[in-house]
Amino acid sequence: MSYLKFDKNLMINLEQSLPKEMLRTNQAGAYHCTSIVGCNTRKQHGLLVIPIEGKGYRPHVLLSSLDETVIQHGAPFNLGIHRYRGGVYSPNGHKYIREFDCENVPRMTYRVGGVILTKEKVFISKENRILIRYTLVEAHSPTILQFRPFLAFRDVNELCVANDNLNKDITEVNNGVSACLYQGQPTLYMQFNRKPEWVNDPNWYNGIEYVKDLERGVPYSEDLWVPGYFQISIKKGESIIFSAGISEVSPRSLNKMYEAELESRTPRSSFFNCLKNSAKQFYLSDGSDQYMLSGYPWGKILARNTFMSLPGNTLAINHRNDFEKIMGTALKALKNFIENGEKSDKIDGIDLPDIPLWAIWAIQQYCKSFGKEETVKRYGADVAEIINYIIDNGHPNLSVDPETGLLSTTGTSYPVSWMNSTIDGHPVIPRSGYLVEFNGLYYNALMFGVELLGETAKYKKMVARWQSLADKMKQPFIDTFLNDYGYLYDYVDNNFASPEVRPNMVIAIGLDHSPLDRRQRKGVLDVATRELLTPKGLRTLSPKSYGYRPFYLGSPTDRELALHQGPARPWLMGFYADAYLKVFGFSGVGYIDRMMIGFEDEMSQGCIGSLSQLYDANPPFMGRGAISHATNVAEVLRTNRNLKKFDL
Predict the structure, then answer these.
(1) C-alpha closest to that of 190 among 148, 223, 222, 220
(2) What's the distance, CA 528 to chain centroid?
(3) pTM exceeding 0.85
């Protein structure tokens, strides 16, 4: 039985099937995303969405969808589905679905009278091309298929409006046609592995609605251009392949291309395999450089998310080479900022104050996988440079207190930590001064530097200095953050200590090196367990705190206010698990393993096979935000790997 399989009863019930989404990528910035019934519910959905170089590499929806129609005895049965004004769904192709299986590739099975038709989709790796294979499994009479392409040619965050400025020209190519609606956009080639008939039938399809955008309180209706349709006959047992890409392809190569791509896939046959596939979808190759996307469908290349998600999305699935490539690209950008003060054109936020700290943490995870000798050889000089940069106050928004040794930053004007929600440019949570996770990461970085380079002669003086600074800040950390209630203040700014119970304290106690002893860690862990833990990760704020907003709903402003005021984040479970296992050792393995069940349940929810950006903090803990998020997938994978180390 397939791990990700949905039957007729679920598929024809739009209330159950529309919230479930599927995502496929090519690891070069392009993707295909829609609901599992094929009805686009977000403006970011599309059959072929690619980044365009001349548009700042912004993703653009070229081919929104492809409506299939089965014709028998002259009667058409349209398998497509769109939502139009007033909440009307037309055509109602979902009623013909008998099964959706997503183990190897997305595979839809339709039944129309005596016709059984399967549809399978694959995205070609590192190429802006999607292939769809249609197989006529059963038919009792001659069958014709029609294919009607819905074209958008727009930015993923914009909407198309019927206009007279588009280029309506259709050019015949080998076994298909090509089109380019607007100047400056690539040409879309739509071809088959055997020759179809093309029928010009140009029309605007007006008032297509995206229900997810409607729910989010943002513009949600657009018009799509359909220039005509393909028509092709098909016999029982025969397969035809449709290709959509930005370059012309030889029709003879499509079968071989499809089969080769199919062989390279890891089946989504288990919880681990689902997350492994999801992790690889965040890889982004750009020539010689490789990056990590923060998520889909509106993710960017973010410095913090890159370092935070890198160990889990590479090392935890045995992709060492990808770790080294992505780390190499990210370190190059970070060192360029350290040495020249220059920001990166492609990696956003490389100048934020906690980036050097997260970079050290990521290298520390590499060290745990491949040992000191290999880490010193590859990253030793980088670790030394980054640590010295921090302690010498090289960063414009990081300062080491000469008396306490604690690290401070200013976050009143713009957000400096991962809790970065803003309204009108101002941080919703103005965390400033001594931030608990900054100082936890700083202490950990110093001690990791000592551990890594302590036996290397040329770093002897540096290491002694790092050890001294770590010793110096240990007691001030406890005095500053640990309160009488047993948990850690979130941040301390001058005479103000934020009493809110937030998960940043769990990061501080989950690191390999912490100023707190085992008893103190347990006290913090107890508070986090009581007030922050959910089946989907840790809440961003305790329900006992003022301003608690458990549901990520409403207008853009409402959602921004709620973003870090309650909703749970799965990635925080990684640090919670680290802390729990450090406190309880082997006896805590069963408990953490049981907590993983909450994430396995999500494999058939939301974006199937992946994890959403955040989850409501109260039952039923619905997934919200980006449908697939790199840090969440990464930390669940890293926790899964850490649990295996305890296996007897």
Answers:
(1) 148
(2) 26
(3) yes
